[in-house]
């Protein structure tokens, strides 16, 4: 029934689906470890997807498209940072507003590209290795985004745990008043962290529209930004756990497609909602395990320095 | 420039610093000079402007006018990092520590540049040996006691090799024993030629430890004195500007029925820190004030919450309020039995910060049947009660009916106490009645509680201020690691015995308490 070729294709597509989530959630994890809850991920992701697609379509360069997507994500994150960090507005409201703004802007940019198609990012081919059965394509036959996401994971893990800037960033998220008293620029560091989150969201969007599904469709992020947010909680703010979380959710979202294909007699709508149900289940399990486990103590609290 | 005559040996000097916050002048031309090798006390009531002055001296705040001199040369500290670079280290009352991180990570965050944590850990160990500050580099700060946290702060400062060390109310969180250790450390530091600015309102300590003292009152410089030549009374006069009233303590009236009876009260821990309660027994009778001493974090908060009904216990009979088993009753039901509660945290626990004072009156009086009848708030009655509290308890504020957060700590505390007292409870449980309250207001609060007791109310006071408990309670019990010693009449105990028990030496205090067995039964 299931031969090695099908299994190999399934694994490869799980990796692809997980990559978007991994990149976006890494960015959000950094922002949250610095104490900023950025609910604008979905908006930044879709703006990245739209700008990346438009640039790549116009220039014919996937690299330019990717850079433009990252830049667009950063620009939108600056809107959020200006509100939530420098004007100390409510982070939840500002983040939601950013997402709504992003969805609107992306729809506007993308309206000219409906029905067009791009050649997606090329996949790596290593003769011999890529041809290995089952795992060959999944491990050795992916595009640059996939490998970039893993490099990013390693970099974020190392930076947070081992470097001074990582230590300062965690300190700002843990107790912003103390960090300020010690002379660390709380708002500056938070802004950089949110910009990094925006860049990652933009990159995740580029992966969507330039590699995973290389065409434009409005609302093509389909809630992946929200899943990325849930993954951060799921991982208890530890980057390595994000890897497991992202691949678990990637697997659920791919397997439900195949389950639909097999005609299991379960309504397709129910299967399509599996990733979202899994998100809710993960959040419930995490919060039941231990209250507020691992959350940065200053998360979501605006910082206003003394006069 | 340099209009004030300053001695050349002044290490750090504030010259006529002024700082305004809106209409309030927090510091009005305040001057202070710290010399190398001396322990200099900064004395003043809460709100006298000590914190503002310190913040300006370390770059956390910028002065509106006046200047800072460092070794006689004018200097500007735009931020705390720049003052640290010049060798000014500050240990604040509210520690700038990160609970989720280890000691060594916390230390690294306070030092410029990057050092491998292992190197830093070795430097911490070295500092620990030199100054007798026991800390373990790889423990998580969240697991440490308050005294240990303070040592982490001090070690962090010392690794920056400061020439001036500013200690903001350092002993307010320490046991007498821990304070002694700190004094020894301070002596070593000044012996090395460093200067220590010691902020305190505990006059005995200042007289023992400090070479000079600068006194502030109401944001103004009052005097610079040699504390060794002053008496505690004369220093208090300088601080307060008037004689400080002592609370009469003698209980002349007869004691009545037990209003609060706690028997074999247990509370399981929540797994993390925050001590559980182990077999607590105490009795408070009508007409007496019983004090509970102890260093913060030994279960006092858990005990208060259990008594107030915020945490319920399974054994109904373990808490009896005015002869009614109350272990499973909530706060409102306990108030209906005639109890009143004043928690430690004023803003956010005793009062809702963003609600008006008059509405805050409702928080504890809604069930009394007087202000709220048939589910309708009687605004006139409410406002009448509000006025009565404000007048009767001398609560001062701007405007007619401001939000609770606008009040100073002392005034809000008077309001909160007044709110409970005017309900005419038969039992009052107060956690930290005068924490962060100036001496005049503190005296007033103690006198009020004393009067209530004389009128037949039972009062239970939880406090970390041993002097306060010795001054105005009738019996004192000590809390340590979730256990409570049997209460002992004040005249039969001593600072030393209580201090020992605070450190966990149960036996020492219990043997003193033998004669008091009948109280705990």
From TrEMBL, chain A:
Bilayer topology: Multi-pass membrane protein
Superkingdom per UniProt: Bacteria
Chain segments annotated as transmembrane: 6-24, 36-56, 62-88, 95-114, 144-161, 192-213, 225-249, 270-289
Places the protein is found: Cell membrane
Pfam families: BPD_transp_2
Protein keywords: Cell membrane, Membrane, Sugar transport, Transmembrane, Transmembrane helix, Transport
Entries under CDD domains matching the protein: TM_PBP1_transp_TpRbsC_like
Primary localization class, coarse: membrane
Protein name as it appears in the record: Simple sugar transport system permease protein
Organism: Ancylobacter polymorphus
Automatic annotation (TrEMBL), chain B:
A Gene Ontology molecular function term of the record: ATP binding
Domain ABC transporter: 12-243, 262-506
PROSITE patterns: ABC_TRANSPORTER_1, ABC_TRANSPORTER_2
Keyword Kinase attached: no
UniProt keywords, alphabetically: ATP-binding, Nucleotide-binding, Sugar transport, Transport
Superkingdom field: Bacteria
Bilayer-spanning residue ranges: none
Family recorded in the similarity comment: Belongs to the ABC transporter superfamily.
Protein name: Simple sugar transport system ATP-binding protein
Organism in which the protein naturally occurs: Ancylobacter polymorphus
